[in-house]
Amino acid sequence: MDYTFFQEYWWLLISILGALLVFMLFVQGGQSMLLQEIPNEQREKMIYAIAHRWELTFTMLVVFGGAFFASFPLFYSTSFGGAYWLWMLILLGFVVQAVSYKYRSAEGNILGRKTYDVFLFLNGIFAPVLLGGAVGTFFFGSDFTITKTNLTDSASPIISQWGPLHGLEALADWRVVAFGLMVLFLVRVLANLWFINQIDDEQTTLWNRKQLRINAVIFLAFYLIVVGVILTSSGYEAIGEHEFLVVEYKYFHNLFGNMICLLFFLLGTAFVLYAIRLALYRKTRHGIWFGGIGTVFVFLVLFWLAGYFNTSFYPSSSDIASSLTIYNSSSSEFTLRTMSYVSIAIPFVFAYIAWVWYKLSKPQEKNDSVEIE
User: In the beta sheet, which residues pair with residue 243?
Assistant: First the structure.
């Protein structure tokens, strides 16, 4: 197994973690609906249904970021250092989320539950949009330049240079914003499916089915727009370590030139649509599992389209030679090889998470307490 194998292996692991993170954002999707018109008792049941999952979402985010740092440190230093305000807003939102779940029902809460519900709502809106926008830059680019020789400059040993907004300028690209909104309404759909699965209450189920109709239509509109834009966009194809060609319809060729990608993409899309149909027309409670699997499949393919096939997964819109690939931004072969041995334990971690999930996933009865300790 050579260096290239380990670089591609670690991009596969990054893809899996990223796809699972998007699925776990259904917690934020549920939070984004907390301020809508709904009886207080039903709202408390919905909060209870997601309150014991937010830790897994945050843990997945930390693992995803840590894996990126270890395997592709040049991307980590470029994105997390240059897009400072973007990532700080994301992390601040998760800190506020943790505080809100801890204290909204605590004795002596001087701010009141409503205030903490507003905090949860804000995290529910901004986390999916910002994280989705960050993934969108994998296709639509960011404004940065990389000069590795700056490491020898003792006065300013900074290899990546960004604009004055430090990453927030990406939100001026409507395609990045559309990607973020697509993720937002996808996780709202997943949240509706989750509530239908978990809460054994007719009125809550009816409310979520009504919301599902709205969220599904908006999600599908953004999904078609984003996929259409990606497949018709040009991409950077690496012909050397820092040499690239601009290839028209690059992602279209990546998708339709690989049967595994195409199969996963079509299956993922079909699973999400089937999940919506199950909840709306067949009145079953199991749509969340098809929706979750479909979400993971689709985002696996999106990560593959961005990183494999000699494609720049972090294109620079200001200096094409600064664009990053999985080959010019990775750790050393020794580091990747050593970490690969450690990664053998990952399936056991997933098995443990699945077991804990199963123990926590018994549907609520109508008379269950909804207080959060």
Answer: 240
